[in-house]
Amino acid sequence: MDPINQRIGDMLARIRATRPLIHHITNLVVMNDTANVTLHVGGLPVMAHDAEEVAEMVAHAGALVLNVGTLSPDWIESMLIAGRRANELQTPVVLDPVGAGATQLRTRTNLELLRSLRIAVVRGNGGEIGALSGEGGEVKGVESVSGPEDPLTAARRLAQTYHTVVALTGARDIITDGERVLTVNNGHIWLTTLTGTGCMATTMVAAFAAVERDYLLAAAGGLAMFGLAAELAAEKAHGPASFKVALFDQIYNLTPEQVANGARVVEGGS
Amino acid sequence: MDPINQRIGDMLARIRATRPLIHHITNLVVMNDTANVTLHVGGLPVMAHDAEEVAEMVAHAGALVLNVGTLSPDWIESMLIAGRRANELQTPVVLDPVGAGATQLRTRTNLELLRSLRIAVVRGNGGEIGALSGEGGEVKGVESVSGPEDPLTAARRLAQTYHTVVALTGARDIITDGERVLTVNNGHIWLTTLTGTGCMATTMVAAFAAVERDYLLAAAGGLAMFGLAAELAAEKAHGPASFKVALFDQIYNLTPEQVANGARVVEGGS
Amino acid sequence: MDPINQRIGDMLARIRATRPLIHHITNLVVMNDTANVTLHVGGLPVMAHDAEEVAEMVAHAGALVLNVGTLSPDWIESMLIAGRRANELQTPVVLDPVGAGATQLRTRTNLELLRSLRIAVVRGNGGEIGALSGEGGEVKGVESVSGPEDPLTAARRLAQTYHTVVALTGARDIITDGERVLTVNNGHIWLTTLTGTGCMATTMVAAFAAVERDYLLAAAGGLAMFGLAAELAAEKAHGPASFKVALFDQIYNLTPEQVANGARVVEGGS
Fold first, then answer.
1. Which of B145, B195, B200, B249 to mutate to test binding with chain C, by most C CBs within 10 Å of its CB?
2. Which leading EC class covers this enzyme (chains A, B, C)?
């Protein structure tokens, strides 16, 4: 077995064994879904956003998710407080820049988070990563209408600028720390028919980052498992909602062995 | 084929072809569901409520949904900002007056929105439309306990007062611009067993209004398709939750031809 | 038939006959789920949190749920306003102390609610009840990592201190008013794989409390029915999400007779 696959399977086993708390400060649309995804992959979810408690809460967490999908000023403040505390504790922070590029508020806020915090992984679609990297792309609401012309270059530039790992998800997922590149070929077109699948992918990345300090590999692991679950779920789908039920069931049912066998991760961005 | 049916099928085809952005400022209970309904019918959803970004966001939208289901003052302010910008751009605004009649805050806020903005369509249940029209009816929480004695008169009066289209949904849906009247006979009793089906219907209306300037017909189209999906979903339901899965699958799977064939829309309010 | 079972079946029949409004001031994660559970058991849900309307809304309610899962200061203020009005009207208030013990804000807020209001039932997991009673236990995020050494003593102490009924849910549910004790043996391990099942249980308790002034028995009834629905749903589950669909369907489909027959409630805490 490819050593990457073996390591991805091992990460899932560690999530299931240690049940890391994944603290989310996330948007109002996906809270229920991402809490369930956290539980199904093996972690413990908590959604807490008040400035008074986020620093205390994140101190118990294995990873922190910052997701700006339904932004408001007081939540941004809480994200900064929680993020700084996570940085002090070396707890990985995973950023989902939902809708970056769609409005100035979203673009500016994401750049502020990237500048103010040490972000372990940024997980976004082509339009969002394009907007943040300055390499172009278009976002309509929260959907990527078009990505940057060269996604890998955009991801690499963003990763280098902010010393982070960038995971640009789409038909194929590109992950880079600015030098190394991994490509994840798992996934299914049904994922585009549901709201919040990007946010769910981010939660998967956070769960893996909670148990693996090589964040490039952690991101690949989370995305490969999510994509694999989607592939298997598609066999039972009659539409987006039955696909979602099957997807969540699969995330719960997949074993470390199945994930190690089914992950399709390759080195390089070709 | 009835020309109305043909036009309804054509509208769905246009939604699928143009994927209009449907900007929602909506309640916390239904955000996920209405985002998914938007995607399944063929549009792109975005939920954005911060005063700083709503005017910018709505400028890219094909329609704006204002839904007061879980009201708070800062969201009302955002609704007014987004609504005014939508009015400037001639983008249709669809209002869902959730719980109008249940509390003074809800009744007053909905009337303020109706007075301050040019609303394309108001979609509410009998109790809500009754309360806003002054024709009576009772709302308990967000449910219509009893509608106005004469629903058509209530709908007509509200439509005339605010120069809008009123869609009063129930066992049969009545839609009027104050003069013309359409009745939609699609639907299923299972819809009453789920939370948020009124809000979902509003989202359907908004998606159709994004591609059709005859808002009376657009409202009929959205409601007919929603009701038709419910009829087909009921065949697979073992209870409300399996009904919901089937309903969402159906909204996604229905083709323009099926909707044109299955819509049961008649002129007049008899 | 055991008289307790008969009374539980009768309560469900009363819920279905009178459709009490269950006013929730609850967390952002579970709003949709608990609204649906309210409808499926037979009540009418409303989620309303603005300080300006909560007193008016709760005046029409059969029960008030206060759930602190995603806390912020303005919501706490609304909880106090609604709770005081409910107390004046003798409307039962059911508290779900989500995450008590996890942060100081959560522990302090729950104790403040317990001191300021007359709470009919507190429904929490072992860690939460342990933290509030001072009897120990550990909460990680919102999950009970470990309960108090002697759950019954913790529940009893909390009940006595605040003159309330405490329902400590887990593999077996312990319910006490400080003197009398009931144990509910219904339930299923699948409930631990889904987010918000504690909150759903609280909603069930509130629906039963809306029609039964013996809150000890009402809590047992709500929890027994919820657990029974879970047992039946487990037969159709392929994972947590299909379990959830089946659970919600079952809550809707269960008849008073089935609940009277299937409830496994015993007196005492052994």
1. B195
2. transferase
Which amino acid type is present at position A111? L
The torsion angles phi and psi of A62, rounded to 5 degrees, stand at: -90, -20
**Neighbors of chain A with 3 or more C-beta pairs under 8 Å:** B, C
Q: What is the model's pLDDT at position A207?
A: 98
Beta-bridge partners for B131: none
Q: Annotated binding site of B for ATP, which residues?
A: 123, 169
DSSP-derived letter for residue A117 is S
> What residues does each domain of chain C span?
3-267
Three-state DSSP class for A34?
helix
pLDDT tens for A3-22 read 999 999 999 999 999 999 99
Q: Express each pLDDT in C147-189 by its tens digit.
A: 899 999 999 999 999 999 999 999 999 999 999 999 999 999 9
Helix or strand or coil: residue C53?
Answer: coil
Q: Which CATH architecture has domain B3-267?
A: 3-Layer(aba) Sandwich (3.40)
**B194 interaction partners in chain C (CB closer than 8 Å):** 36, 39
ipTM of the complex: 0.97
Q: Kindly state the DSSP code that residue B42 receives in the 8-state scheme.
A: T
Residue A241: which of B61, B74, B245 has the nearest Cβ?
A: B245
Asked if A141 and B21 come within 8 Å (Cβ–Cβ), the reply is yes
With 0-12 / 13-18 / 19 or more C-beta atoms within 10 angstroms meaning exposed / middle / buried, residue B89 is middle
DSSP B103: B
Say if the Cβ atoms of B105 and C50 lie within 8 Å.
yes
Place of tokens 């009490």: C20
- The strand pair at B173-176 and B138-140 is best described as unpaired
What pLDDT, on the 0 to 100 scale, is given for residue A270?
61
pLDDT value of residue A247: 98
Find out whether C58 and C242 touch, Cβ atoms under 8 Å.
no
User: Side chain identity at A242, as an amino acid letter?
Assistant: S
DSSP H or E segment with residue A16? helix A3-18
The whole-angstrom separation of Cα A140 and Cα A142 is: 6
CB B168 within 8 A of CB B154: yes
Residues of A within an 8 Å Cβ radius of B: 27-30, 32-33, 69-73, 99, 102-106, 140-143, 193-196, 238-242, 245
With beta carbons under 8 A apart, name residues in chain B contacting A29: 31-32, 35, 47
Rounded to a whole number of angstroms, the distance from the CA of C241 to the nearest CA of chain A is: 5
